[in-house]
Amino acid sequence: MLRIGMLTSGGDCQALNAAMRGVVKSLAANVADLEVYGFENGYKGLIYGNYRLLTSKDFSGILTKGGTILGSSRQPFKLMRVPDENGVDKVEAMKQTYYKLSLDCLVILGGNGTQKTANLLREEGLNVIHLPKTIDNDIYGTDVTFGFQSAINIATDAIDCIHTTAASHNRVFIVEVMGHKVGWLTLYAGIAGGADIILLPEIPYDIDKVVEAVQKRSSEGKGFTILAVAEGAISKEDAKLSKKEYKKKVEKRKAPSVSYEIAEQIKEVCGTEVRVTVPGHTQRGGSPCPYDRVLCTRLGSAAAQAIMDRDFGCMIAMINGKTKKVPLEECAGKLKSVDPDGQMIIEAKRMGISFGD
Ligand code: F6P
Predict the structure, then answer these.
(1) Same domain, yes or no, for 6 and 21?
(2) How many structural domains are present in the chain?
(3) Domain that holds residue 22
(4) ipTM metric
(5) What's the whole-model pTM score?
(6) 59-69 residue pLDDT tens
(7) Which residue's C-alpha comes closest to atom 6 of ligand 1?
(8) Is 201 in the pocket of ligand 1 (CB under 6 A)?
(9) What would the mean pLDDT of 58-79 be, rounded to a whole number?
(10) Separation between Cα atoms, residue 115 and residue 130, nearest integer Å
(11) Same domain, 33 and 153
């Protein structure tokens, strides 16, 4: 008998179901006696004992389905050791659920915060396997996370659509792209969508340089300009502030986000119309793209093999096109950011894209 538990935690993304299907189909084909428990709404389900026994039927027809059949929630890592409002010790409660069900392993799908909690559970003696999910692509130790490619497609589509209307109206347009504290999604979608200016958290911008790039285009007779701005983009000035000072500044900011602030600044100097488009959570929605379906099927299958080998405490990563087990203690708590001096940035700059630096 093999008993596994599964949960999806943090912000959702497109290929969570595909990944769970990959794990369960591979196990079901190779293990005679399998029980799969699905915990509802992330770690919450594990803490409060909300779970259901899943059958192969639950995994049928979900390869292309976005979201997660288990539901998800954010349970901040920094609060994991803090008892809840009723005094429940969350870590102890998770362990109790695990032991009550006599699980052999927990398969945990999630991003950075989720991974940190997975590592904590490993330190507490539970068998865990982590699958790297996030549209942000910021998980250290894997070349790519699932959800990233699907989100690139959506953000690129948004930029493509903005292109035609921007050109018709001779407008400056800002498309604000998700990505939390990193710029991977903005960089890829920005390049794919032909953005003229790309602003990333890893390359603090100088607003004068941004304005200069807009003016240069109009002086060349180009009526419109497209900016792809990461939601976490930060000015050179703000990058010098302490975390606390910056947080305070953002709280006081009148504009709804950094993009609106930049739009105001461009408008003020250039006197042109500037519009902001925020695709927001659409970037996490809908069906996974074929790349993510294949990626998740492979990661899921590799996770199943690790479970059958009883090789736990790792993330299943994709490195140079091959699945690989990366020990959680090597990757948990680390962030994978865009290298501001990396080849991709150099190549983009060479062909005239401004990063506002
Ligand atoms: O981590 C995925 C992500 O979509 C980020 O890109 C974004 O900053 C964040 O989640 C949004 O979180 P929420 O869904 O809680 O608004």
Answers:
(1) yes
(2) 2
(3) 2-147+288-331
(4) 0.97
(5) 0.97
(6) 999 999 999 99
(7) 179
(8) no
(9) 97
(10) 7
(11) no
